[in-house]
C-alpha cells in the first residue's frame, strides 16, 4: 500500500479552554486539537520532527532556526476510485456482448432515421402525425 504524507507546523502557543490552567496543559490541548482535526480527515499521526530552516536576518545575513513539524500519513486512494470509476463486481448481470451492437444500432436508428438507409424517414407534416406506413412497421 502506498501513502501520502502531510507535514504541518506544530503549534507554538497553547489554546485557552475551560478547565485548562497551566501553560503545559494549554500547549498539550493545542497539540491534541491539531492532531484530532487532521485525524477527522483521515490522517494518521506518525511523528514530530525538529528540522533546520534557513531564514533571512536583516538585509544581507541569514540564520538557521529550527521548526517543529508534525508528520501525518494516510493511505493513497487508487486512481480509479479517485476519478469516481467503480470497479466492476464479479457477479454483474450485463447482456451478452453479442446483443450490444444490436441495441446500439436501434438507438442510432431511433434518434436519426436517416442513419439506417433501409428504413424510410417518417412523414412529419405539421398538421398530422407520422404516416400510417411508418406506424405499421
Overview of the structural elements:
The protein has 137 residues and is an alpha+beta fold. It folds into two domains: 3-77, no CATH class; 98-137, no CATH class. Helix content is 29%, strand content 26%. It has four helices and three strands; from the N terminus they run βαββααα. The chain has helices at residues 23-40, 79-82, 99-111, 132-136; strands at 3-9, 44-57, 61-75. Strands 1-3-2 form a three-stranded antiparallel sheet, covered by helices on one side. The protein is flat.
Keywords:
single chain; 137 residues; alpha+beta; 2 domains; three-stranded antiparallel β-sheet; 4 helices; 3 strands; flat; disordered C terminus
What share of residues are in beta strands? Answer: 25-35%
Work out the helix count. 4
Extract low-pLDDT stretches. 88-113, 130-137
Helices and strands: which structural class? alpha+beta
| Largest sheet composition | 3 strands, antiparallel
Envelope shape: flat
How many domain units?
Answer: 2
Strand order of the largest sheet: 1-3-2
Average of pLDDT: 73
What distance lies between the first and last C-alpha atoms, to the nearest angstrom?
59 Å
What's the Cα radius of gyration?
33 Å
Tell me roughly what share of residues is in helical segments. Answer: 25-40%
> Could you give the count of β-strands?
3
Classify the oligomer.
Answer: single chain
Order of helices and strands: EHEEHHH
